[in-house]
From TrEMBL:
Species name: Marinobacter algicola DG893
Molecular-function GO terms, alphabetical: agmatine deiminase activity; protein-arginine deiminase activity
Alphabetical keyword list: Hydrolase
UniProt-recorded name of the protein: Peptidylarginine deiminase and related enzyme
Top-level taxon of the source organism: Bacteria
SUPFAM superfamilies linked to this entry: Pentein
Length: 344
């Protein structure tokens, strides 16, 4: 499984529509998706799907106009496809490189253990493939529930994940840790799996996806969320996660370089429930890193930190305050497609 910083052809977006949980705040959240799409177009293709055909046609026109105005023609791929929700990171295909080119693996998606409707999302990759969106790249079904947000790859055979997510019985009840490790080895080429047993974010429906907590930013470097406030409900769990990360070693036995990410001020919804704001949910593009920000004082520090972690890429903030009202952020609504697949 390639690292996220490997060359990409496109970013996949599943657009919100009135049949999703976004229905009451579509006017607020669609501009966030549009900002993501237009920013991505500066660097690569956008693979956009939407259940509502007329809305898809409007989006395609708007994005093509943007692309033309910025001398980026031909980068918009728009496909009509049914969807329950918008979390492309988790229902999108997961790429692997077998040395002779890429394959796209279509793992099963069941909405994080059956928490929400999922049947349309589970079929979305097939719709895209049948439409020809992936060109000649094969889409291979895998009879195993796995979300893209639950795994991080260093591109060299090491995966980072959480036991809270992958070992939850509502996903793959017949498989234990050893069985899951074997399957990930067979399907993703994982030679090593680093399991985090601690760490969570309040308001997160995913059972502690790794992409909200800790991310590879180089094969020897992991950044992670750290909570310095001893009075915060997250302090103990994230301190324990930090200790686990400090015990991890690379394949050659060397310790990882570790960089803590800023801890944003607590953000609550209208009912007083805490929302899962995290700077770990950044997205790496061909020439940039999109960083979620939330309108809190720690945003600037987060941008500076990510700029130091990715010095050769443009670091671009995206206000994701509206996204976290539904439990996810920037990385959660996007999925990278490797080079040579879309628009080839």
């Amino acid at each position: 499984m390639p690292a996220e910083w490997a060359p990409q052809s496109a970013i996949m977006l599943t657009w919100p529509h009135p049949g999703t949980d976004w229905s009451d705040i579509l006017a607020d959240v669609e501009p966030v998706f549009m900002e993501i799409a237009q920013t991505v177009l500066r660097f690569q293709h956008v693979l956009l799907s939407c259940e509502h055909v007329f809305r898809l046609q409007e989006l395609e026109r708007e994005l093509n106009n943007f692309a033309q105005e910025n001398d980026l023609p031909g980068r918009v791929v728009a496909v009509p496809a049914p969807a329950n929700d918008t979390w492309a990171r988790d229902h999108g295909p997961i790429a692997i490189n077998r040395g002779e080119g890429y394959e796209l693996l279509d793992f099963r998606f069941n909405a994080w253990g059956g928490k929400f409707p999922w049947e349309k999302d589970n079929a979305l990759n097939s719709h895209l493939s049948n439409f020809g969106s992936f060109g000649a790249t094969p889409l291979i079904p895998v009879d195993f529930v796995l979300e893209g947000g639950s795994i991080e790859s260093d591109g060299n055979g090491t995966l980072l994940t959480t036991s809270e997510c992958l070992l939850t019985p509502s996903r793959n009840p017949s498989m234990d840790r050893a069985g899951i490790e074997h399957l990930l080895s067979e399907t993703l080429g994982a030679e090593r799996i680093l399991w985090l047993n601690h760490g969570y974010l309040a308001g997160d429906d995913t059972d502690s996806h790794i992409d909200t907590l800790a991310r590879f930013c180089a094969p020897d470097h992991i950044c992670y969320v750290a909570c310095p406030d001893v009075s915060d409900e997250h302090y103990s769990a994230l301190a324990a996660m930090e200790e686990e990360l400090q015990q991890f070693h690379q394949a050659d036995g060397q310790a990882y370089r570790l960089t803590p990410l800023p801890w944003p001020d607590a953000i609550h919804d209208e009912n007083g429930e805490r929302l899962p704001a995290t700077y770990a949910n950044f997205l790496v593009l061909n020439g940039a890193v999109l960083v979620p920000v939330y309108g809190v004082p720690q945003d600037e520090e987060a941008l500076a930190t990510l700029s130091n972690l990715f010095p050769e890429r443009e670091v671009i903030p995206v206000n994701c305050r509206e996204l976290i009202t539904q439990g996810g952020s920037l990385h959660c609504v996007t999925m990278q497609i490797p080079a040579g697949v879309v628009g080839a």
